[in-house]
């Protein structure tokens, strides 16, 4: 018996009985680097230079490490950014707090902290701006306004997208495991006179188990709002990316960096990963961290 045939039977039965979703493809932005990656990471010696060195070489450092000093409008003289969350949405608040924590943890000290309406240097809010063919960004940093915005239309529909993605991710894993079980069993009973009946019975059992597991996962997602949790985690990294821009970091050519132009993680689609996490997935890489450290040092030298 070939894996392909058992897969098609089990896949069809499982999809029809549980969620009826079309197949989705996922892109994981976690593999590979480019030839520019090494040169984009500031060395320990570069991070130990004097303020005068940073002032003198600010232009060459910006070119080499991809900095935009004009984007550092929310940073105080010490590099601290005080963030005011101008929305009552509790999930946005959770994402902002996680994003700040990601940077503070990686940098080893507080560079982002909560501000108030009366005292802040950056505002985060939801925007009603509609997406266009030219711009489908889910969030962005506006240095002139010291404003980070989240597109509310994308934010509102993302729970459905993530719920479907988690179920499809689980479905693929469950089906693949069931097919491996079926094929292994078929090999064990291949010489039995009743092999056809035995395999059919075993396949039916695997189908039932797959349906039961996927139904349980879907119920858990709905009952425990795991789709909302996944969105909190996803937007935490989205906001951490935008906060990186506020530190003066341009996009990185390195796919493993948070500051890669299309940063993301397949973990947001992973039911088990989302279910078992309370703090999300900090995607800030060593390159992101050292670039941020250098950008902050240059800002302090220029302040």
Automatic annotation (TrEMBL):
Pfam families named in the record: Peptidase_M10
Tell me which SUPFAM superfamilies the record gives.
Answer: Metalloproteases ('zincins'), catalytic domain
| Domain of life of the native organism | Bacteria
Q: Domain Peptidase M10 metallopeptidase spans what residues?
A: 217-262
Output the Gene Ontology cellular-component terms.
Answer: extracellular matrix
Does Zinc appear among the keywords?
Answer: yes
Keyword Zinc applies: yes
> What protein name is recorded for this chain?
Peptidase M10 metallopeptidase domain-containing protein
GO annotation, biological process: proteolysis
Keywords attached to this entry: Hydrolase, Metal-binding, Protease, Zinc
Say which species the protein is native to.
Answer: Secundilactobacillus kimchicus JCM 15530
């Amino acid at each position: 018996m070939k894996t392909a045939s058992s897969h098609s039977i089990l896949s069809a039965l499982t999809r029809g009985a549980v969620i009826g979703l079309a197949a989705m493809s996922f892109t994981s932005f976690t593999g590979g680097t480019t030839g520019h990656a090494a040169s984009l990471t500031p060395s320990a010696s570069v991070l130990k230079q004097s303020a005068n060195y940073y002032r003198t070489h600010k232009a060459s450092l910006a070119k080499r490490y991809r900095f935009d000093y004009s984007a550092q409008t929310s940073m105080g003289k010490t590099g601290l950014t005080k963030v005011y969350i101008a929305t009552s949405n509790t999930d946005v608040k959770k994402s902002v707090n996680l994003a700040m924590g990601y940077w503070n943890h990686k940098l080893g000290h507080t560079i982002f902290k909560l501000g108030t309406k009366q005292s802040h240097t950056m505002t985060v809010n939801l925007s009603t701006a509609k997406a266009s063919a030219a711009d489908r960004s889910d969030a962005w940093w506006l240095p002139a306004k010291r404003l980070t915005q989240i597109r509310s239309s994308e934010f509102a529909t993302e729970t459905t997208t993530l719920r479907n993605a988690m179920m499809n991710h689980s479905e693929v894993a469950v089906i693949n495991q069931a097919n491996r079980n079926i094929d292994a069993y078929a090999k064990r009973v291949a010489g039995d006179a009743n092999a056809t009946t035995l395999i059919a019975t075993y396949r039916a059992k695997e189908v039932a188990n797959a349906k039961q597991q996927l139904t349980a996962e879907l119920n858990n997602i709905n009952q425990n709002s795991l789709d909302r949790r996944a969105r909190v985690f996803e937007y935490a990294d989205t906001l951490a990316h935008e906060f990186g821009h506020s530190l003066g970091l341009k996009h990185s050519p390195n796919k493993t960096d948070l500051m890669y132009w299309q940063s993301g993680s397949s973990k947001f689609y992973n039911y088990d990963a989302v279910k078992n996490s309370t703090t999300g997935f900090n995607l800030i890489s060593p390159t992101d961290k050292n670039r941020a450290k250098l950008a902050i040092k240059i800002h302090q030298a220029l302040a």
